[in-house]
Amino acid sequence: RGLLLLAAALGVTAAARCPASCVCNNLRAHVLCLNGNLTAIPDTIPELTRKLDLRGNSFMVIPARAFLATPYLTHLDLQRCKVERLEEGAFRGLGRLVYLNLASNGIALLYQESLDGLFSLQQLILEGNRIEEIQLGAFGHLQSLSVLDLRANALVYLPDMVFQGLQGLRWLRLSHNALHVLGSEAFAALPALRRLSLDHNELQALPGEALARLDGATRLDLGHNPITYVAEEALAMPSLRQLFLDHASLQDVAPDAFAHSPQLRILDLRENQLQGLPPLAGAGALVRVSLDGNPLLCSCLLRPFHKWLARARVQAEGVCAAPPALRGRSLNSLKSLEMRCSRLQPPASRTAPPEQPRAAGSRQCPRRCVCSPDFHHGSCENRDLWEIPQDFPEDTRLLDLRRNPFRTVPPDAFPGLKELVSLHLQRCSIRVLHPGALRGLESLVYLYLTNNHLSTLAAAAFEGAPQLAYLDLDHNAFTRVPADTFWFLPNLISLHLQHNAIRELAEGDLAGARGLRWLYLAENAIRHIAPTALAPTKMLEKLQLEGNQLSEVPTTALWGLPALSELKLSRNPIKNMGDSVFLPVASSLQHLYLDNMGLERISPHAFTGLGPKIRSLYLESNKMSNIPDMSNFTGLEILNLQDVPFHCDCKLLPLHRWINKLNLCVGATCGSPAEAQGLKVKLSTTFQTCPGWRRSKAGETNPNKTKAPSKPNKRSGKSPARGFSKSRA
User: Fold this and answer.
1) Confidence of residue 528 (pLDDT cuts 50, 70, 90)
2) What is the pLDDT of residues 229-259, one digit of tens each?
3) What's the pLDDT tens digit per position in 507-523?
């Protein structure tokens, strides 16, 4: 009440301090600065602001104490702000903040103190960044957090105790990452967790040891993982009520797989490769089992399961695929006598994959280094070491050797570290990585070699590290992609080669990179991409080529990339864009970056094939005066047309009409004629002399005219593009 009275008393002053290009609602203590050109947090935001919306700006870095001037904030939205780094202490002073949205940025690493001071925070949304690694302690001060959203990032590994400090967390969302290694204590510090989403990852086995720490979790999503087998007593979650294992690769489930999850009520096994199930021992609370989409063999081998369903009064959803006489019959309609076996019917086998035991070592920490036995970390950062130290404990999982002048990495440089997952060798003046340098690092997932002097790599440099998924070679001296090295890296998912001096992408450069999903080649000197250069990377999802020397869209090279969803061509000197340049990836492309290129002309048919799937299109800071028809881009969530000198004559009338229908802030401005210069395309009066203007306006504004409801797009089922609640185009 006191704050409201103070706000009313200071209303005039607060309005006077509203930053340029922002909208301030002093009564509600809201400030909106949407889709602008802000590169720093405004320092004139009213002190009593409760909700601050900064979506669609270009901050890059959130510095320490960036919001000290607004201590009463409860809601902060920083979506799509091109943020790449959160400085330690970035949010200090925001002790009242309950909601923080950092979705759709470029954050790659969460530091220990990045989120310091947010002790009232309840929701933290980090979806759609490129977070590869989370440092221990990053969430240590978020004791009030109830929802943590880390979907659609680049996580492969979760170390032990990574979520320490989140005592109140109830929902952890880790979907759409690339997780395939979970520490046994990864979820040990989450006593209040009720729901865990791990779907759409790369887990090849059910992570039973890690999940056993979740005593209170009631829902677990593990669908869309390549899990082939659920072993005996694999899941010990005493409070679990709903388990989703749909769209995996399951071929078999052990009879007592869920014996230690006695509260399980719903088991979703849709769209797997199961021919049947055994009676599920110990699952006394089970109510429903979903088996739709499995090739169920309704023979005598399925009789025990069928009888168990009736005895336990469990509802089963599924249809027989064989034998032919029963094909299409639902499980519930079958009778035992119908389920027969031929004499040649083989017995079902249930052989669990063998587990490889690992013995923990007892070696001590090298001199001048620090080892943490609780977290399995070792660090010799910035110790002026000339040789890579050895004799780290054999159970070390993260090794930090940054800022030491090693110059070379010799063969067998890391003996005995079979459990090492993350290796940091940034800023070590490394010029040579010898063949066999990583030999023996059987579990290595992350390798950071940024800011060194590497110009070539021996093909055998990565021999012995078959699990390597993230290779970061940014800020080195490569003049070409290190060809022939990827045959030793069958699990490589992400390759960083930004800020090098690569001149072209040649045929064979990426040979062997069959599983590559994210390729970062920004800020090189690439002038040419061979037609077949990207052919080996058929699973590629993100291709970042901004800041190179391409003079045309590499259309031919894009054929054969059926999963490509993001293409960045920003800051390339592409002046003209011809017909159908994105046709090879039209069926999958969702995010297209064509900004800051000096683009002068776009063919009317340049976007042929693109349509409802496009979610974001960036065309700002170019020189063209018109753009192609995009009326079928019905799925747009972001469209940026700022700093484009549109010629607002009758030829632009279709764009004017379309923008008026959009619920998006696009920033389109007239560059000519003189009487319209500087006006928003939406507001320009130059279109009023165009043929058909009065007819179109009457259809839009006549209150007596019945307006037909908009029809959803037949392919997508979506209505016209939606976004912010009010258009400020």
Assistant:
1) very high
2) 888 888 999 999 999 999 998 888 889 999 9
3) 999 999 998 988 999 99
- Residues 578 and 606: beta-carbon distance below 8 Å: yes
Q: For residue 658, what are its two tokens?
A: 């379309």
Paired tokens of 32? 């909106």
Identify whether the C-beta of residue 372 lies closer than 8 Å to the C-beta of residue 395: no
In this structure, are residues 720 and 636 in contact, taking their beta carbons and an 8 Å threshold? no
d(CA 522, CA 513): 19
For domain 19-154, say whether CATH 3.40.980.10 is its number.
no
pLDDT in the model for residue 374: 64
Domain definitions of the chain by residue range: 19-154, 228-333
Strand pairing category for 266-268 and 296-297: unpaired
- Is it the case that residue 117 has pLDDT exceeding 50? yes
Q: What is the pLDDT of residue 681?
A: 87
8 Å CB contact between 648 and 626: no
CA dist., res. 174 & res. 199, Å (int): 7
d(CA 364, CA 390) in angstroms, rounded, equals: 10
Q: How confident is the model at residue 342 (pLDDT cuts 50, 70, 90)?
A: low
* Pairwise CA distance, residues 638 & 616, whole Å: 4
346-351: average pLDDT: 40
Task: State the sign of the Cα–Cα–Cα–Cα dihedral 324, 330, 333, 339.
Answer: positive
DSSP state of 680: B
pLDDT at residue 712, as a whole number: 42
Higher pLDDT, 695 or 630: 630
Helices (H) and strands (E) in the chain, counts: 6, 45
The residue ranges of DSSP E strands in 2-57, in sequence order, are: 23-25, 30-32, 51-53
3 state SS for 430-484: CCEECCCCCCCCCCCCEEECCCCCCCCCCHHHHCCCCCCCEEECCCCCCCCCCCC
Give the count of alpha carbons within 13 A of 465, CB side only: 32
Contact 425, 401 (CB under 8 A): yes
Q: Which fold has domain 228-333?
A: 3.80.10
User: Could you tell me if 509 and 481 are in contact, meaning their C-beta atoms sit under 8 angstroms apart?
Assistant: yes
User: Could you tell me the pTM of the whole model?
Assistant: 0.64
Cα angle 166, 128, 72 (rounded to 5 degrees) comes to 55
Q: Name 494's bridge partners.
A: 470, 518
Q: Which two tokens stand for residue 579?
A: 């017909």
pLDDT exceeds 60 at position 197: yes
Which residues fall within 8 angstroms of residue 430, CB to CB, at 6 or more apart?
406, 407, 408, 409, 449, 452, 453, 454
Matching fold, domains 19-154 and 228-333: yes
Give the pLDDT confidence of 258-298 residue by residue, as tens digits: 999 999 999 999 999 898 999 999 888 999 999 999 999 99
Q: Provide the phi-psi class of 716: left if phi over 0, else alpha when psi is between -120 and 50, else beta.
A: alpha
Vertex 355 angle, CA 354 and 359, to 5°: 145
